[in-house]
Design brief:
This protein is an alpha/beta fold. It has an eight-stranded mixed beta sheet. Helix content is 34%, strand content 16%. The protein has one domain: Rossmann fold, CATH 3.40.50.
Length: 299
């Protein structure tokens, strides 16, 4: 763990490692159990990542603080990728490289922005990459359909400057869903790699949680917008799926089942899966400052 703590200090300040020794009845269940068998209360908790940490705001505040510091010390160009007011991204360029990491933030499609993703830029430039953090509209101001299209537009915009074979796409939580939806578009190219971090790939359970108060999915739109149902359309982009030990069982199941669906597609290489000891839904992002993790898709 010493290496991880060095990265935390350099790039993200002091973030506590959360350990949880107490488990609810829902936590004790097997991760691969169908979500249908949860009570309404347990299902709500399973789709509340903050239920596994003492204080979510510590992490959100650190994303914002470190992101602001990054943009103050490293040049970030704010670029429009479409006409919508929310359709912009940050691009931090590395003059010695044509390789690009594209980050799509989480927040259950309801909060955060591209600003929060820029705390990772210093590490990625040090690793020899350019770094992009994509902004997008939030629910309920816009529909999830619109957000999916915005991410596609942003990545297409970036391919005008960077070749897909030099681009690694990374999505966290809801951002992993959005990256997966891009990969599953029939006309999407093969990218250098993609990393799904604690993602959501089957949206049907979301219909039955309070998240849907803002996202407003129906049973049908949830199926249509679930990348786990669309993996057969995706090119064979090398893929890694990672999550923290201290995630809810449903987030672990989502990652595991998406990995299986992707790997089961005849034209796809197997997914590289990894669970990170002691990490939770929020501090797992600091693992992305490691070259070993960035290289996981092709490992």
């Amino acid at each position: 763990m010493a290496r991880v703590r060095v990265f935390q200090t350099r790039y993200a300040g002091s973030i506590p490692v959360t350990r949880s020794n107490s488990k609810s009845e829902a936590d004790a269940r097997e991760p691969d159990m169908s979500w249908h068998r949860y009570s309404a209360v347990d299902l709500e908790r399973e789709y509340t990542p903050a239920s596994r940490v003492e204080n979510i705001q510590i992490y959100l505040d650190e994303y914002a603080r470190a992101g602001h510091a990054s943009r103050q010390t490293i040049g970030h160009a704010k670029l429009k990728y479409a006409s919508h007011d929310d359709a912009w991204l940050w691009l931090a360029e590395n003059a010695t490289s044509q390789k690009l990491i594209v980050f799509v933030h989480g927040g259950f499609w309801r909060r955060l922005s591209a600003d929060d993703g820029t705390f990772l830029s210093p590490a990625w430039l040090d690793l020899g990459f350019n770094a992009a953090s994509i902004n997008y509209s939030l629910c309920p101001s816009e529909s999830l359909d619109t957000i999916v299209e915005q991410i596609s537009q942003a990545i297409n915009f970036l391919t005008q400057k960077f070749a897909p074979q030099d681009m690694i796409l990374i999505g966290h939580s809801a951002g992993a869903h959005l990256v997966a939806m891009k990969l599953c578009q029939p006309d999407s190219p093969k990218f250098a790699g993609a990393i799904m971090v604690s993602g959501i790939f089957d949206l049907e359970p979301i219909v039955h949680t309070s998240v849907n108060d803002a996202v407003r999915l129906t049973e049908q739109t949830a199926k249509n917008l679930s990348p786990i149902n669309l993996v057969g359309y995706a090119a064979n982009t090398p893929l890694a799926v990672i999550w923290g030990e201290n995630e809810t069982n449903e987030f672990k199941r989502q990652s595991s089942e998406f990995s299986s669906a992707w790997s089961s597609t005849k034209t796809h290489s197997p997914v590289n899966q990894k669970q990170f000891t002691e990490r939770n839904h929020f501090d797992i992002l600091y693992e992305l400052t490691s070259r070993d993790v960035i290289d996981l898709p092709s490992a």
